[in-house]
Model the fold of this input.
Amino acid sequence: MMIKLKESLEYIRSKTDSKPNLGIILGSGLGIFADKLDAPQKISSSEIPHYPKSTVEGHAGNFVFGNWKNIPVLAIQGRTHYYEGYSIDKVSYVVRIMAKMGIEILIVTNASGGVNPKFAPGDLMLITDQINGMFRNPLIGPLKYGGDRFPDMSDAYASEYFKIIENIAHKKQIHLQRGTLYVSTGPTYETAAEVKMIRKLGGDAASMSTVPEVITANQAGIKVIGISCITNLATGISSAPLSHSEVTETADKVREKFIQLVSGIIEKIGKKD
Done:
C-alpha cells in the first residue's frame, strides 16, 4: 500500500513543486473556492495513480495547488464518497496523500441538511464534533500507513481554532452556527424518523461525507477545521422533497459568504511561523 501512495506522490510531484502546509477539501457546490486561488496548478485526480475517481455531480475531481494572499494552499475540488462504492479507507486516501505532502492543517467542508430547528438553509456551521453513523472506520485492519492503533478523537475538530473562526465570522458579519455533524453512508436522504433519532443523539446537521477524512487526519496528526453549508432542512423539518439539485443551488447562493469565511481562516492560521 505504501508503494501505491509513493506512486501517487511521485506523479503529483512531477506536476508541481508547491509545498503547502494547509489543505482544504471542498464539498458539494463549494469547489468554486479553488478557482479563486492565485497561480493555480490543477491536476485531475483521475490522472493520479491509485486515486479513486469522483462520480458525483458538483465534485469536479481536481487537486488545485495555488496561493491565497501568498499562502500556499492545496484545494481538493470534489471528494469521493463511500456510497460511490469505494472502500472506506479509499475514501480517505486523499488525506494520506496530504499527510505525506506535509499538510498540517486540514479544512473539511461539506453540504449538509439542517437537523437543528434553529438552522436555516444558507447558514454556515462550524463543526465542533461528529457522530459516525456510517458505522465504518478507515483504520480497521492492518495499519498500512503507520500511526497510532487507537488514536484519540476527543478533539477531532481542533477546538483551539473555534474562537478564532467565530471572531473571523463576526468581523465579516457572517452568521455562523456551531454544532455536531452526524454522518450516514447515504446515498438516500434520511427519513423523518431517522432525523428525529439524529436530533436525540445530539446531531445538528446530517451529511454523507467528512467522517472518514477526519478520522484519518486525526490519526495522521493533522489538525482539522470543519465547515458545513446548511443547504436544506432535513426530512420532517421541511415538508418539501429533498434533491441534490437543491443542495448545489443553495451552495451556489452562499458561495461569497463561504469564500469570505474560508479565506479569512486561511489568512489567520495558514501562515507558517
